[in-house]
Design brief:
Pfam families: DUF6178. The chain is mostly helical. The chain has 5 domains: about 80 residues; about 170 residues, no CATH class; about 120 residues, no CATH class; about 90 residues, no CATH class; about 120 residues. The protein has 27 helices and 9 strands. A 3-stranded antiparallel beta sheet has the order 3-5-4. The chain has a two-stranded antiparallel sheet with strand order 1-2. Strands 6-7 form a two-stranded antiparallel ribbon. Helix 11 packs across helix 14 and helix 24 packs across helix 25.
Length: about 600
């Protein structure tokens, strides 16, 4: 029983079900493996090596391991995975089941895994090494020795200092027996070790035995370094070697990563004047990669959709660019690479900026986006996205610090929802998009596309226009409005005094014929005011608002005034309709009218 697999090298374009040919063939192969593993093994090994690599890359962690067990050249197949793909595989499988992958890993893959997961930000975390070392020991002394040989001296010293201290004793002719106060553990009668943690002592002991038996000179060098080298220089050198190795694999340092947020250089996204990436041999050595990073973005977004249009080297090149941009996000936002959720969140933010920049430059046109991608690097597009987000951030702060919100005790909270939540997201150090459709208690996420940008822009324009509406078109005095926060009123919570409540109070006083400056409504007129507003909001007021808005000469301002007033008065009507004026109403139980307390 065989599954016919007909793949073109490097093919990635999706079928009508949204699956790439590799994903379709992978699903069929895994299905076959569940019913006839021998047939699946024959089928998989009959494929050319590169196609087997691409099938593995399209598989998830557990399925990747299943494919590797089918391959008769599993060590070669594992070694063909880029180091970041190998690390992702290990983390997806989990440390309890990753023994096979670690046993088959190349030295560079294992080093990358330890460099990413064995550090907590800029400090070595030996406890994280202890997760993987038992798996290395299970793979045999040869695999442990290869790890020791490929690890820099400084890192080994830091690890060992975490696990034990060293006392050196050289026996003399006068004293053949060591003194009683020496630590009890020694492998050579010269270096006596005091192991700190009994839980890790077995693992540490086996590593030491392998090191001492196979590399006695290296063992002596490490012991002497532990005795005489200062801790700080050793830690600094270990970090420098680690960062250098990561940079060799496309993991940038912090300064390079932050360039994604830098101001765009003049002309860097003038794509029609840029040479083709093919002509520049840009990322000519891009190796095959999975779509794991691509899937961090919704598949309807620009970058995933553009990738579906590419095949072969161009698709691999775009995946490599996306992996680099994702790594920039991880480094710049100080995410923990060992924490998959934290890493994906940071990567999604930097990829979102590139996705947004592509939409801005291409104006949302798919074919134009393909042309842009063929000439402009994703970091340049990310800078365009960051610049657009930064402009929103600046205008939001201008509104709070210098605009009409200046002086309000509750600042942006005077705005109704969702304007207050939108503005709050825009003034974060890393501006966020307010998305009420998010599951759970989440409200904010990274900007992803033009729709996010335009929606935030509209809400920001509306927030700005509230000031003109209240203080110019309606003609309220700002000092009178600020007086609501200087006296005892309902609602008692100052953050519940919203623009709609200011508008509702002004309308109530108007309908009751109360003259003088705007002020909280007298308590004894609350029922009468509610009844009047219930009637007017349902009858004549909508037409009056429509006429007033039509009188505004600027079309944009007319549209803003209309949308704000309609939304605000609809909220007010819904609030007041639930009140029965046949009873003596408690003004403390509504936010729609500001009343004396």
């Amino acid at each position: 029983m065989f599954v016919k697999i007909t793949m073109k090298t490097g093919e990635t374009m999706a079928d009508e079900n949204g699956l790439s040919p590799f994903q379709t063939d992978l699903n069929e192969l895994l299905k076959l493996n569940r019913t006839d593993s021998k047939a699946a093994e024959e089928q998989f090994n009959s494929l050319p090596f590169e196609k087997r690599v691409r099938l593995v890359l399209n598989a998830a962690g557990g399925d990747r391991e299943r494919l590797l067990t089918l391959d008769r050249q599993s060590k070669r197949l594992v070694s063909a995975l880029p180091p970041d793909e190998f690390t992702r595989s290990v983390l997806e499988v989990g440390h309890e089941d990753a023994g096979t992958l670690l046993a088959l890993s190349s030295d560079s893959q294992l080093t990358y895994l330890f460099d990413v997961t064995g550090w907590r930000h800029d400090k070595l975390d030996p406890a994280r090494y202890e997760v993987w070392l038992p798996l290395l020991l299970e793979a045999g002394a040869g695999r442990v020795l290869r790890w020791i040989e490929s690890t820099d001296l400084e890192t080994m010293v830091l690890l060992f200092r975490h696990w034990f201290s060293v006392v050196k004793y050289l026996p003399s002719q006068d004293m053949q027996e060591p003194p009683d106060d020496l630590p009890k553990f020694t492998l050579d009668g010269v270096y006596y070790l005091d192991l700190f943690d009994k839980k890790s002592s077995d693992v540490v002991g086996q590593v030491l035995i392998t090191l001492r038996n196979e590399k006695p000179e290296l063992y002596q060098t490490i012991m002497e370094a532990m005795l005489w080298e200062d801790a700080s220089p050793v830690a600094e050198d270990a970090l420098r070697w680690r960062n250098g190795r990561l940079m060799d694999h496309g993991f940038p340092d912090r300064m390079e990563a932050l360039e994604l947020w830098a101001r765009p250089a003049p002309g860097e996204t003038d794509w029609q004047k840029q040479p083709s990436k093919d002509d520049l041999a840009f990322l000519a050595d891009a190796s095959p990669r999975s779509d794991a990073v691509v899937r961090l973005l919704p598949q309807v977004e620009n970058l995933p959709m553009v990738l579906n249009e590419l095949s072969g080297h161009q698709a691999d090149r775009l995946r490599a660019e996306m992996a680099y941009v994702a790594n920039c996000g991880v480094v710049a936002l100080d995410a923990d690479p060992a924490d998959q959720e934290e890493m994906q969140k940071a990567a999604r933010e930097s990829l979102g900026m590139a996705n947004l920049g592509l939409a801005i430059i291409s104006e949302g046109e798919r074919q134009t986006a393909l042309k842009v991608i063929s000439r402009v690097g994703l970091p340049a597009l990310a800078r365009q996205g960051a610049a657009a987000i930064r402009e929103l951030n600046k205008e939001a702060w201008d509104l709070i610090k210098e605009g009409w919100l200046q002086g309000f005790p509750t600042s942006l909270y005077v705005l109704d929802q969702p304007l207050d939540r939108n503005l709050a997201g825009l003034v974060y150090p890393r501006p966020r998009y307010y998305d009420p459709s998010l599951p759970g208690d989440k409200e904010y996420r990274a900007f992803l596309n033009l729709a996010d940008l335009e929606q935030s822009r509209l809400r920001l324009d509306q927030a700005w226009f509230w000031g003109k509406l209240l203080f110019e078109l309606i003609g309220l005095d700002k000092g009178d409005v600020l007086g609501f926060w200087q006296t005892k009123v309902y609602p008692e919570d100052a953050r519940e005094i919203k623009t709609t409540a200011v508008l509702g109070t002004w309308l109530a006083r108007r309908y009751l014929g109360l003259s003088g400056p705007l002020a909280p409504l007298p308590r004894d007129s609350f029922n009468q005011a509610v009844k009047a507003l219930q009637t007017e909001l349902s009858d004549s007021l909508p037409e009056e608002i429509k006429s007033s808005c039509q009188a505004i000469t600027d079309p944009k301002e007319a549209a803003l005034a209309g949308s704000l007033l309609r939304n605000s008065l609809n909220r007010l009507l819904l609030e007041l309709k639930r009140l029965n004026t046949d009873y003596d109403l408690d003004p403390g139980r509504t936010w729609g009218i500001i009343t004396e307390r």
